[in-house]
Amino acid sequence: MSLELMSEHLLLKPFQLEDIDICLDMFTDPDVVKYAGGLMSESTIRREMPNWTKRGGNGCIGIWCITDRLSGEKYGSAALLPIPIDEDDTDFDLVVPGTMPDGDIEIGYFLKRSAWGRGFATQACKRVLQFAFEDSPLDEVVATLEEKNAASRNVLEKAGFKNHGSRRCYGEDGPDYRISRVEWSNVAAKKN
Q1: Mean pLDDT of all residues in the chain?
Q2: In terms of Cα–Cα distance, which of 78, 76, 54 is closest to 5?
Q3: Residues 180, 164: contact at Cβ < 8 Å?
Q4: Which of 13, 89, 106, 174 has the fewest CB atoms found within 10 Å of its own CB?
């Protein structure tokens, strides 16, 4: 199983410490983090990088760096991680090599502002879902978002997620988006 994922325009590679440049670009931009946690200082980003490079479940759980297949330009990140319930952030102690964490696994994505509006978030989301359902033991992937984040809602819906109401996550109630392996297979079959 390869952890490098390719789509039409993108290459997704497991996050490494040298991907701090894209993290600094994204997480210090107020527009990028408007709906997700707020601004981070450079020192916080540097402190978190070892967590962000962890992989669990034989590599199936973790964060990928989204890059342009041709130029290598870094656009952002996509992730499969345990969704926090009462905490306000991911518990990276649950991301352990060789172990699939209990509980729901969430898909997430961030793009630097210059990469917005080009379909990259949707393309990355779809490719990570393909990986999740073809190469990992996951039977379902969940997602949540800030209610006002219409762009992220569009990405999830284009990838086949359905809104299942409300759920507890990130220490509050939020939208409960889900897609199962069977639902994903049906969406993928319709495209072929």
Answers
A1: 95
A2: 78
A3: no
A4: 89
Say what the pLDDT of residue 101 is.
93
- Within 8 A by CB and 6+ apart from 70, the residues are none
Number of helices (H), then strands (E), belonging to the chain: the values are 5, 8
What's the confidence (pLDDT) of residue 162?
Answer: 97
Q: What is the pLDDT of residues 134-158, one digit of tens each?
A: 999 999 999 999 999 999 999 999 9
The owner of tokens 């490494």 is: 16
- The DSSP letter of residue 61 is B
Angle, CA 101 vertex, CA 100 and CA 102 arms, to 5°: 120
Surface-to-core class of residue 188, CB atoms within 10 Å of its CB (0-12 exposed, 13-18 middle, 19+ buried): middle
1-50 pLDDT, tens digit each? 789 999 999 999 999 999 999 999 999 999 999 998 889 999 999 999 99
Domains of the chain, by residue range, sit at 5-191
Distances in Å between the Cα of 133 and the Cα atoms of 4, 33, 159, 180 are 15, 28, 13, 8
- What is the CATH class of 5-191? alpha beta
Name the pTM for this structure. Answer: 0.95
DSSP string, 87-101: SSS--GGG-BTTBPP
